[in-house]
Please model this.
Amino acid sequence: MIAENIKKIKEQVAQIALQCDRDPHDIRTIAVSKKFPPSAITEAIEAGQFLFGENYIQEAELKQDAFVDAVNLHFIGHLQTNKAKIACQLFQMIETVDRLKLAKALNKHLSVVNRTMKILIQVNIGRDLNKSGVMPEEAEDLIREIQPLPALEIHGLMTIPPFSQTAEESRIHFRSLKLLAEELKEKNLIGISHPVELSMGMSKDFHVAIEEGATLIRIGTAIFGPRT
Model:
């Protein structure tokens, strides 16, 4: 089932991308393996999926043996500063950096082992009190504060829009994130030495996110099935 779902998602991504004059290769799917067992991860890897996302540090630690060396692992949950050291050991990208204190903690631990890490700035684009992320008008200042930290590479922005009943309701938030990214790029704050990454869209609204410029989509249920 997982292999079939991965194949279906790839076909859908390609179709949507071509319909809006985008290169399908510019869009990568993160398989969100939160609350799914190592056996499901192994099945996904065997089906050719090598980019995964985890939301919880402790869960990722327990499942780390399933993530073989070829896997690219992103952290996509709220990261507590006291978990920064472990996060640096487990992940290749942190998508949810939303405050300077966390950035400094990551930089400190990475510097000790002479490593750099890709990060995204999480933006609370919908101003949802139930979501993490820096407010849109504060993103520029946060990026300027993080830029001097040598171990961190800012690759773009990430958002989780407010809950909505339909995918179309998320469009305005995805579009706002894209516009913010364009403003920041014009100021040479992102996209200087790397293409700008926009992580947005999940199982129910990824097609809208692609239409609005997503380069990373986070898919859990549509790959692994419903969580118990």
